[in-house]
Every structure is written in C-alpha cells, then in structure tokens.
Amino acid sequence: MTTAILSALPEEQSTLVAHLAHPQRLMHAGRAFWRGELAGRAVVLALSGIGKVAAATTATALVERFGVARIVFTGVAGGLGDGVNVGDVVVAEDYLQHDMDASPLFPRWEVPGYARSRLACDADLSAILLEAAGACVASARGQFGFKPELLGAPAVTSHRAHHGLIASGDRFVCAADEAHRLRTTLQDAGHPALAVEMEGAAVAQVCHDYGIPFAAARTISDRADDTAHVDFPRFVQTVASRYAEHMVLTLMQKL
Ligand code: ADE
Hints:
This protein is an alpha/beta fold. It has a single domain, classed as Nucleoside phosphorylase domain (Rossmann fold). Helices cover 33% and strands 28% of the residues. It has helices spanning 10-17, 52-64, 123-138, 176-188, 200-210, 232-254; strands at 3-7, 21-28, 31-38, 41-47, 70-79, 89-97, 118-120, 161-168, 193-197, 214-222. The protein has a five-stranded mixed β-barrel with strand order 5-9-8-6-10, surrounded by five helices. Helix 4 (176-188) links the parallel strand 8 and strand 9. Helix 2 (52-64) runs parallel beside helix 5. The longest helix is centred in the C-terminal third of the chain and has 23 residues, at 232-254. The protein is globular and about 50 Å long. The protein starts with a strand and ends with a helix. The relative contact order is 0.23.
C-alpha cells in the first residue's frame, strides 16, 4: 500500500526527499515524483503545484500512474478563524471551494454533481495527523526554535493545532477586508472556515472521486490580511518545512 505525500512547497519536499530510502525520481505529466520508503513504508512524494487545477492534476497522476492508496497533504495557509495564529497548524476536517459559485443553478459553494459544498477528510488519517501536529506546536519554541515575533508576526505564547474546515480557492488572500468578507460570508452560511489556501479542496475532490482516504495539515503562515508581515521564505524554511517533516515522519511511523 503506497502513501502519497503531497507538498505545497519545494522546501517541504526537499526535506522529505532527504529521508527517503531507495529514492527514485520519475517524471510524469511535467512533474517530478519521488518513489521510495519512509519509516519502511512505500511512499511517493510530489509537489501539488499552485492552485486547484495543478493540484488536481498531480493528485490524479498519483492515483492513476502511481496507484497510491491514500494522499496526505502538507503546506501553508492563511488563518481566518478566531485564534488561528501564525505558527499554528490546521488539520482539515473537511474542505470547501470558496470560489465555487454556480448559482442560481446550484446553491452557492455546492460542487455541481456532488450535492454538497463540503468534502470530508478521512477521520482516522486526520486523527494521526492532528496528534502529530499537536506535538509539533507544543514543542515549537523548544525543538523548532520558532519565535513568530522574529519573523514580524505578533508574539504568541503558545501555539495550537486546530481541526476544522479549510477553504480553498484560486486566490492568494492578502487584504484584511477581503479576509473579513470571506470569513463572515462563509460563517453566516454555516461554514466556519479556520484557514484559506489554494489547493486542498481540489485534492479532496479527486480523492472523493477515486474513493481513497485524504488528510491535510496546513501551517499558518499569515492571517490573509495586509498586515501579515511574515517573511515568507524564512517562515517556510524555519517553520513550515520542519513542521511538515515532523508530521509526515510521525504519521508514517504510526500507519
Ligand atoms: N497560502 C498561504 N497563505 C495564503 C493566503 N493568505 N491565501 C491563500 N493561500 C495561502
């Protein structure tokens, strides 16, 4: 049984490639895939690409070409929910496409043909990921040496691992009014999104189509507003890729 580890960021992927036993690089659909073993288990590592279509293509290739039995996705996201701070991790309970709108033919956010707007992640895989995320954030200041204030983000005394809805769309949200509108519009419709990113819902849909388990963990890199002064490349290097490494290796040991 092969597990796909999908990374949103090249830095996350290269950290994992360094841990691969019997690494083998293959090109397919214009993408690089790494086959090998992590913690003695067969994996394929891939980069999602940016945006829903790129991520859906990668996910489809993972299933069709590499025959993976489940997909685990790590990356970064903007925090939308109350108390979802830079340096926290959100493990997806389910996903929604915030830019899906086929109204008046279908209710706003409903994915046509699926009779729903939210696609659930696998509960068992997500529980393992949530436990690994909790251990990561608990030791953030110790093991990972993460101090958000050094990256320009507000100082927070403790970091949290959250579990809930993540919204995806083909838009990098970087304005306070837009983040507020997105959050309140979704919340008022009964969709309290904790975070926003650009790929997860597409992968959730592909996994739903093929009937394979899916789980995702996103490290919060910003608050999706214009006051998020985080030094993104440094954040990715010092925090997000180390969190991803820790979460994925913990998960692989527990599968
Ligand atoms: N990924 C990380 N931060 C994001 C944001 N603010 N909007 C969309 N995707 C993101």
